[in-house]
């Protein structure tokens, strides 16, 4: 915190002073202290639970449910007091200034939201004992909820901006995700408040138990996802290990495909699918006999046919992986060309699935910028020129342009030349089916790729 | 997001030999009995309700709709367990309903200050059954055959809650007593659900009951807890706030269901990925077509026979699927792809290489360990003879894979029973030194039971 700009210091002091003033000057007559203590404990428990919904610098805690319950049950003053409890929690905020600020902003959010709740007539409907309570309270509650989340996010965003820890654009994007989480958790405050009269804290147990379990399931999901990705990547590597020159190829093609996909604005789930498709695109190469790949000189027709078959073999392997639907087409057709002279089907133009057009560009680019046994790696500029040359004939212009834009922004780290072990038996591939600038030669009828 | 399809899941749980039979033949006696009991109960309930008429029809319809929606969004959890958390929470909530909201407009108000709920346990069963039926129709329409045993189990669980709780409602008990009774009843219903599921499962996959019960508790406990809590929440909220509360108070279980659905999806995907990628050795010509798949099926069946729990079984399945992955590092396939014919040193090298690959995932260390030791003989030569073999036998999973692999290498795709018997005989001769005799016996029982693998 030492490096905070002056403006940020002033802002923090202002927020803390405002909150302190508010709390000191409020009157607490008729406040249900018992409920306050119970809710405060609840807030602490929820807030210290491990948070899965994390965005880099902030986190959504289930404490929101307790805060919103206090808005309904205790009114603005009580909600402000409960907010102060946040000073104690927050295992990630060790700095006292951060804790203080956190408590102050929660207090302000609680107070503002309580005022909105009262202004909209929420307090008049009483708590759960009123008939048709749900119908009456839902409107004011939603108003209070939105206010709470808005004030909370705005106060936090301003400090991040002032402290220059975040750019406005990414802040906006992250706030979107955060807001959904906050609103969701906040809604449960209504449930707790509604049954508080009848069940007391037990209401909170009933409401929050499923949420804790859901959160646990989310963590499990997350872990499984990581495990799945790691396993997939490792198995792809295992397929590559035979050839020193193509190691890491799948991983890089996957990265390049994702760059293109994001650049052309694909939906996140499709980007995820193309990540896998890129990784798996050459799995079928394993079905190509080693001696064909290692052959020096022109291939026979049969040998070339074996190479042409590899996308189909790949498809055969991954067909059963359910999540890949669209990716399958990408894997199968990643060697089609825009002019219809590719393989295995000879599709042309728009007939080629979008995924395949994306992977094709990333595949060729990585192949050209990698070292091969028969040539050193090309420079990025040369590879770009080659991609441009292939526009229309080989590659989809949209994909190439998208890739070049992404390349300019994010850069590309070509693989380092492989270090071959010092023995004679090392196996290297002579035939590179991915490199558009060095097409495979087939004996008898010139050049193909 | 991908829920596992019924088909892929069925492969996991149902006995293999019955895959192509009509639906009703796939059920074993326990399942049939369960369905019969549930069917009779529904029949009785519907008749009774038809005769007397629906009490508080509006509430009944509201809960019926909730149950139908829950049934529509049912899902399959890992291990081929069909669950419908929303439907179950709704149905149990209906069974636990004490009142139907605050009175007003001349309605009779009970001692709790709410209009008492008047429905009988038979009505609970009837409404639940109707909701389930309606919710299942879209599934049937798209060609997914209903899992009668799972539906029956859910219905019976709800029935147990209704039978034990409905009589208490009319006793004018105090609120705290009612609340405690609710708690006891939902816990009991969870136990009943788990026990019934374990009984069905033990019979279906030929696991021991104790192990099936433990697996079931492990798999179901979190979801059961969430469902029960929401059921109580729904019951209490609807009692005091009327049916409008039903809309709002279903939210917690919706969140839970969403989370678990994603979990089930990624679990299924993971298994699919490993299954699919285990085939690279086949496509590369290193092993016979279908080898990994057959070995893994055999191994899992043997593991079950030997009383392994679900967690270790999954690791065994992964290890069996990937046990030959080390061959990818070999320059050329070994002839015929059968590792059992390779020299012990070479077998060990393949296992080591495979384990190394698997270990690199960083998440499958135990699987790597199983694969590494799957080439080791059951009993090492006398210690100190310099052969460098382990003095302790390898873990059970490794021993199972060793036997399953040898069996499949020698029998292959052949359907010849004599050949299978001959191979078993050969393995038996080698057992005690190379193969674990108990594992070989488990294999013989598995093979005996399923004429064709």
UniProtKB/TrEMBL annotation, chain A:
The keyword Transferase does not apply. One of its GO terms (molecular function) is hydrolase activity. Residues 427-436 have a biased composition (Basic and acidic residues). It comes from the Bacteria. InterPro entries: Cyclic_di-GMP/3'3'-cGAMP_PDE, HD/PDEase_dom, HD_GYP_dom. The chain crosses the membrane at residues 6-24, 31-51, 63-88, 100-121, 141-163, 175-196, 202-218. The keyword Translocase does not apply. It holds the Pfam family HD_5. SUPFAM superfamilies: HD-domain/PDEase-like. Keywords: Hydrolase, Membrane, Transmembrane, Transmembrane helix. Residues 224-419 form the HD-GYP domain. Residues 412-449 are annotated as: Disordered. This is Xanthosine utilization system XapX-like protein/HD superfamily phosphohydrolase YqeK. It comes from Actinomadura namibiensis.
């Amino acid at each position: 915190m030492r490096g905070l700009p002056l403006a940020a210091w002033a802002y923090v002091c202002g927020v803390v002073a405002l909150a302190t003033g508010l709390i000191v000057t409020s009157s607490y007559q008729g406040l249900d202290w018992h409920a306050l203590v119970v809710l405060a404990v609840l807030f602490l428990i929820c807030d210290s639970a491990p948070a899965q919904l994390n965005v880099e610098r902030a986190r959504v805690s289930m404490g929101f449910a307790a805060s919103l319950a206090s808005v309904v049950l205790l009114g603005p003053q009580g909600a402000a007091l409960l907010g102060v409890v946040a000073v104690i929690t927050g295992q990630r905020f060790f700095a006292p200034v951060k804790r203080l600020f956190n408590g102050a902003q929660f207090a302000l959010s609680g107070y503002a939201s309580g005022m909105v709740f009262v202004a909209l007539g929420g307090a008049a409907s009483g708590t759960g004992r009123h008939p048709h309570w749900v119908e009456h309270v839902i409107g004011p509650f939603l108003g209070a909820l939105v206010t709470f989340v808005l004030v909370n996010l705005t106060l936090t965003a301003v400090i991040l901006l002032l402290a220059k820890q975040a750019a406005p654009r990414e802040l906006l994007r992250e706030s979107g995700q955060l807001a959904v989480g906050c609103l969701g958790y906040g809604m449960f405050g209504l449930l707790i408040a509604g049954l508080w009269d009848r069940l007391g804290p037990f209401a909170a147990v009933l409401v929050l138990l499923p949420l804790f379990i859901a959160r646990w399931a989310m963590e499990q999901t997350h872990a499984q996802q990581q495990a799945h990705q790691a396993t997939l990547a490792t198995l792809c590597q295992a397929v590559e290990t035979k050839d020193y020159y193509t190691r890491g190829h799948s991983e890089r093609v996957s990265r390049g495909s994702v760059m293109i996909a994001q650049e052309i604005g694909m939906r996140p789930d499709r980007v995820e699918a193309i990540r896998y498709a890129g990784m798996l695109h050459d799995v079928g190469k394993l079905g190509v006999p080693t001696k064909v790949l290692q052959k020096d000189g022109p291939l026979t027709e049969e040998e070339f046919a074996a190479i042409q078959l590899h996308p189909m073999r790949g498809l055969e392997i991954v067909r059963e992986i359910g999540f890949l639907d669209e990716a399958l087409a990408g894997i199968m057709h990643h060697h089609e060309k825009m002019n219809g002279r590719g393989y295995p089907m000879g599709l042309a133009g728009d007939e080629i699935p979008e995924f395949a057009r994306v992977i094709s560009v990333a595949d060729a680019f990585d192949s050209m910028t990698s070292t091969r046994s028969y040539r050193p790696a090309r420079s990025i500029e040369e590879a770009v020129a080659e991609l441009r040359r292939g526009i229309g004939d080989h590659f989809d212009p949209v994909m190439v342009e998208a890739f070049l834009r992404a390349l300019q922004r994010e850069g590309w780290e070509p693989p380092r030349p492989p270090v071959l072990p010092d023995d004679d038996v090392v196996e290297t591939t002579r035939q590179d089916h991915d490199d558009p600038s060095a097409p495979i030669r087939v004996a008898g009828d010139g050049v193909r790729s | 997001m991908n829920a596992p399809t019924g088909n892929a899941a069925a492969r996991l749980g149902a006995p293999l030999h019955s895959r192509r039979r009509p639906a009703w033949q796939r059920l074993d006696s326990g399942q049939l009995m369960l369905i019969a009991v549930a069917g009779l109960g529904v029949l009785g309930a519907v008749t009774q309700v038809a005769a007397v008429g629906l009490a508080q029809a509006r509430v009944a319809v509201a809960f019926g709709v909730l149950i139908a929606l829950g049934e529509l969004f049912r899902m399959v959890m890992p291990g081929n367990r069909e669950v419908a958390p929303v439907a179950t929470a709704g149905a149990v909530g209906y069974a636990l309903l004490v009142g139907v909201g605050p009175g007003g407009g001349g309605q009779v108000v009970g001692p709790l200050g709410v209009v008492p709920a008047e429905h009988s346990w038979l009505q609970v069963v009837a409404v639940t059954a109707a909701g389930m039926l309606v919710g299942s129709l879209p599934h049937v329409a798209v060609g997914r055959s209903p899992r009668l045993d799972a539906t029956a189990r859910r219905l019976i669980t709800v029935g147990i809650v209704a039978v034990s709780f409905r009589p208490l409602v009319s006793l004018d008990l105090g609120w705290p007593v009612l609340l405690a009774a609710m708690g006891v009843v939902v816990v009991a219903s969870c136990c009943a659900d788990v026990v019934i599921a374990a009984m069905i499962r033990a019979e279906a996959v030929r696991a021991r009951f104790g192990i099936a019960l433990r697996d079931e508790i492990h798999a179901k406990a979190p979801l059961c807890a969430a469902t029960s809590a929401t059921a109580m929440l729904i019951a209490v909220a609807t009692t005091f706030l009327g049916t409008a509360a039903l809309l709002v108070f279903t939210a917690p279980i919706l969140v839970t269901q969403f989370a678990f659905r994603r979990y089930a999806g990624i679990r299924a995907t993971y298994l699919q990925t490993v299954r699919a990628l285990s085939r690279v050795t086949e496509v590369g010509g290193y092993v016979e077509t279908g080898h990994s798949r057959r070995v893994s099926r055999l191994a899992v069946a043997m593991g079950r026979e030997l009383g392994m729990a679900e967690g270790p079984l999954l690791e065994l399945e992964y290890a069996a699927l990937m046990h030959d992955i080390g061959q990818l590092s070999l320059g050329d396939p070994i002839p015929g792809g059968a590792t059992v014919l390779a020299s012990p040193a070479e077998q060990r090298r393949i296992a080591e290489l495979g384990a190394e690959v698997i270990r690199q995932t960083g998440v499958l260390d135990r699987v790597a360990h199983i694969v590494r030791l799957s080439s080791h003989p059951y009993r090492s030569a006398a210690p100190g003879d310099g052969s460098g073999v382990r003095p302790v036998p390898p873990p059970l999973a490794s021993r199972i894979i060793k036997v399953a692999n040898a069996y499949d290498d020698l029998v292959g795709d052949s359907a010849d029973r004599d050949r299978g018997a001959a191979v078993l005989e050969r393995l038996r001769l080698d057992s005690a030194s190379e193969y674990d005799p108990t594992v070989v016996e488990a294999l013989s029982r598995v093979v005996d039971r399923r004429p064709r693998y």
